[in-house]
Amino acid sequence: MDWIIEQMRKKTWSPYAAGIFFGLVNVLALIMISKPLGASSAFGKLVGLGLEGIFPKAADIMYFKFVSTPGVNFTVIILLGVVIGGFISSKMSGDFRWRTVTDQQWIDMFGPSMWKRWTVAFLGGIILEFAAGLAGGCTSGLAISGTMQLAPSGLIFIGGLFTTGILTSLLIYGKRW
Amino acid sequence: MELTLWEFIWSLILGIAFGIALQKAQLTKYSKIVNVFRFKDLSVLKFMLTTLITAMPLIFILKGMGALSLSNVNPTYFLGNFVGGAIFGVGMAAAGFCPGTVAGGIGQGSLDYLIPGGLGFLTGAYIFGQTYTSIFTKISSIGNIGSITIPEWLNLNQWLFIFFFVQMTLVLFYFLEKKGIE
Lengths: 177, 182
What we know:
The structure holds two protein chains of two kinds.
Chain A: H1 2-9, H2 15-32, H3 41-54, H4 62-67, H5 74-93, H6 104-110, H7 114-135, H8 139-148, H9 152-173
Helix pairs in contact in A: 3-5, 8-9
Chain B: H1 5-24, H2 30-37, H3 43-64, E1 76-77, H4 78-95, H5 99-107, H6 111-130, H7 132-139, E2 144-146, H8 150-154, H9 158-178
Antiparallel strand pairs in B: 1-2
């Protein structure tokens, strides 16, 4: 127990240690809930739920009726858990802080403007969630959950992701890449 | 609720562990995500590959023992998997988060992840839903080989494939650490 608390008070784990831990968590998911972990599909469930309450007409489409029915399923609970896990981890290590602009590297590159960061975060969110839907999952639900089960789609996704990720950062950072 | 109490409790525990792993690896930070694409900090790659070489052999050993079955293998449809991944890479390199790390980042108090990030993801999910029949059903029918594994698809020995995957990853790690590449 003391050892666990000591680890939780650390701000950073090596990516190898965190990776072994996360690998075991992924296996545990298959054993305990018979489903691989993922994050992106929860947003579809949540937006459907919100629309049903506010604009029922907007939720009256094929996708929300048959493919991703509005409601709280295991993916939504997992996503909620991730928020709680991030809170526990950062609180125990002293890394928790209300932040409006993400980190120093962003500020060095693009300045302290909150609106600049918030605009990119909003547009980035749209792009990421649409893309995850198209691909059939995200970094967790496809790149990791797919590849660990030896699905070709996991590796194809990783190939696409790194290709444009590298090109995009090259474009954004230019000479400072 | 579409889940039993058992599923609820386990989903919550697994999610919390997921969030702790992301936050402790610092993947809930913009710079950690973006710098993998700039080859300045390969933590994301090291984390993903370590997760894979831990989970992959265990899953197939447990499957061989009959302790678990793989009923949710992600379907493969070449064009959509690749194009989706390619669009995803643009968003990830620009925003510095992805669907899982945005949730972990909300937990550490990042308001840019919570408010514009969260709204962006919900909007993206709505756009995906609206265009589902016109875009997704079409693209996912191109090069669709269904829910099969690489060894099944290419007629390879599954254990040999896993062995090489793990071995190649360990060789990569060895060189990264030897050269002192973060």
